[in-house]
Write a structure and sequence with these properties.
The complex is a heterodimer of chains A (331) and B (94).
Chain A: H1 9-30, H2 43-68, H3 77-102, H4 108-116, H5 133-151, H6 160-188, H7 192-211, H8 223-228, H9 236-254, E1 264-266, E2 271-273, H10 279-289, H11 293-306, H12 308-320
Antiparallel strand pairs in A: 1-2
Helix pairs in contact in A: 2-3, 3-6, 5-6, 5-7, 5-9
Chain B: E1 6-13, E2 20-28, H1 31-42, E3 50-55, H2 67-71
The chains are: A mainly alpha (331), B alpha+beta (94).
C-alpha cells in the first residue's frame, strides 16, 4: 500500500513504523504471548487465521453430512444416540469456530455465504461417501483420529479465540474417536461378513485420512510462515507420521490390514514408513471432483433454504417483542 | 444476504458456588433464543448450572493500546503482596 508514494518522507516514516510494529508483534509471539482480537496484528496474520479457521468451521458443518446419513439406520438404539450426539458435537464445533473467525472481522452471514456459494474450502475427506455402517466406525477412528492429531497442537495456537475453541473441541473429540474404534472392534470380532465390512471401510478411508494432513512439507505453501507465527506447531509430514505410528498398531489389534503394500517398520528410526501417497486424487477432490462434492453443497444449500422461514419467523417474533427503550422514571 | 442475528457473549456458572465465566459467543434473534442456543452449544456435557447472555455490543472494554498505562503501575508495588514481608521462622501463624 505504500508503493505508490515511496519517495515521500511520510511514506518512509510509515514504512518504518510498520516494520517496528511487525517486530514487536513477532517478539510477542516469540514470548508465547497470546494475540487477542483487539490487539494489533499484521494483515497477513489475520488473513491466514481467517482462512484456516473458516475452513475448519466449514469442515465441521459439512462433516455432519456423511455421518448424518446413517443416523436413521444405526444398528441399535445405543449406536443411534451416540451418533446423534457426535453429529450434534460437530455442529457445536462449527459454531465455536465460526465465532472465533468472526473475531477477525468477518460476519457469520459472509462465512455461510462463502460455504454455500462453493468459494470456501473444507476438508476434502467429507467428499467421500459413507457406504456401509462400518464407515461410521472408520470415520470416528481414522478421520477423527487424524483430526485430533492436527488439533491438539492448535490448542497452543498464538491466537487466543482459536486456541480456546480448540481446547473445547479436543475435549469432545476424544469420545468421537473411541466410539468409532469401538464400532470397528465389534465388527472385527463379528461374523465373516462383518469383518469384511470393517476391512472394506479401512481400505477406503485409510489414504484419504492420511491426506487430511495436507500436502507434504515440500509442497506446503503456508507452513513456514504459519510456524513462525505459531499458528501451526508441527509440519504436515510430522503430524502424518505421528498418526501412522499410532494407528497401524490399532489396525493390527483389530486384525485388519492397512491397505498399503509398501508399509514397513523401520527399526532404527522407530517409525512406520508408508508407501507413496497418490496426491493426484487429493488435488482432484480439492478441485471439486470428489465423489460427493456436489451432493454436500446441495445438502447445505437445501438445509439453509428450508430453514429460511424459521429464521424469518424468529426475527419477526424478536422484533415484535423488543423491549421499548427505557422510559424516563415517573416523577 | 440477511443481516446476522445479534451477537451475544455467553457466561456459564459451572457449579453453584463458582462465578460465571465467559465461554464464547453466539448469534440469536432474542435473549430467550440466546439462552437456548447457549444451552445447546456450551452445556452438552453438564458444563453448567446457570447461563448468562449479554449482547456483545453492551460490553465496555478497556483499550489494549492503554494496557500499559492501566496495568503497568501495579508492577512495582510488590509491597501489596504478603511475600514482600520477611517474618522470622520462629513466628508462627502469620
Amino acid at each position: 500500500m505504500y508503493t505508490q508514494a515511496l519517495d515521500s518522507p511520510e511514506a518512509a516514516a510509515a514504512d518504518e513504523r510498520e516494520s517496528e510494529r511487525l517486530e514487536r508483534f513477532q517478539a510477542r509471539i516469540d514470548r508465547d504471548e497470546k494475540i487477542e482480537p483487539k490487539d494489533w496484528m499484521p494483515e497477513a496474520y489475520r488473513q491466514t487465521l481467517l482462512r484456516q479457521i473458516a475452513q475448519h468451521a466449514h469442515s465441521e458443518i459439512v462433516g455432519m453430512l456423511p455421518e448424518g446419513n446413517w443416523i436413521t439406520r444405526a444398528p441399535s438404539l445405543r449406536r443411534k444416540v451416540v451418533l446423534i450426539a457426535k453429529v450434534q458435537d460437530e455442529g457445536g464445533h462449527g459454531m465455536y469456530l465460526y465465532s472465533a473467525a468472526e473475531t477477525l472481522g468477518v460476519s457469520r452471514g459472509e462465512l455461510i455465504e462463502q460455504l454455500l456459494s462453493g468459494r470456501a474450502k473444507y476438508s476434502s475427506i467429507f467428499n467421500y461417501p459413507t457406504l456401509t455402517w462400518a464407515d461410521i466406525g472408520a470415520i470416528g477412528w481414522l478421520v477423527d483420529g487424524a483430526a485430533i492429531m492436527n488439533q491438539i497442537p492448535l490448542c497452543r495456537c498464538s491466537y487466543g479465540p482459536y486456541a480456546r475453541a480448540m481446547v473445547r473441541i479436543c475435549k469432545e473429540e476424544s469420545f468421537h474417536q473411541r466410539q468409532g474404534y469401538e464400532i470397528m472392534l465389534t465388527l472385527s470380532r463379528g461374523s465373516a461378513a462383518q469383518r469384511a465390512m470393517a476391512q472394506d471401510a479401512l481400505d477406503r478411508w485409510w489414504w484419504p485420512s492420511l491426506m487430511m494432513f495436507g500436502p507434504s512439507d515440500a509442497h506446503s505453501v503456508h507452513t513456514a510462515q504459519s510456524m513462525r507465527w505459531k499458528i501451526k506447531r508441527f509440519s504436515n509430514d510430522e503430524l502424518r507420521q505421528k498418526f501412522i505410528d499410532v494407528t497401524v498398531p490399532q489396525a493390527e489389534f483389530l486384525g485388519l490390514a492397512v491397505p498399503d503394500p509398501d508399509l514397513r517398520w523401520d527399526e532404527s528410526a522407530e517409525h512406520y514408513v508408508p508407501g507413496p501417497i497418490d496426491w493426484s486424487e487429493f488435488h482432484a477432490v480439492l478441485k471439486g471432483e470428489g465423489p460427493c462434492n456436489r451432493e454436500r453443497l446441495e445438502a447445505r444449500r437445501a438445509a439453509h433454504g428450508a430453514g429460511r422461514w424459521v429464521r424469518e419467523a424468529a426475527a419477526a417474533f424478536a422484533e415484535k417483542h423488543r423491549e421499548p427503550p427505557h422510559a424516563a422514571p415517573a416523577g | 444476504m440477511n443481516e446476522d442475528w445479534v451477537l451475544y457473549e455467553v457466561f456459564i456458572r459451572s457449579r453453584s458456588g463458582l462465578e460465571h465465566k465467559h465461554v464464547g459467543s453466539l448469534h440469536a434473534a432474542d435473549a430467550r433464543m440466546a439462552i437456548e442456543h447457549a444451552r445447546d452449544t456450551y452445556t452438552r456435557r453438564q458444563e453448567g448450572v446457570s447461563i448468562w447472555v449479554v449482547r456483545s455490543s453492551d460490553i465496555v472494554a478497556s483499550d489494549p493500546a492503554e494496557a500499559e498505562e492501566l496495568f503497568e503501575p501495579a508492577r512495582d508495588k510488590v509491597y501489596r503482596h504478603p511475600t514482600f514481608y520477611a517474618i522470622p521462622e520462629d513466628v508462627k501463624n502469620i
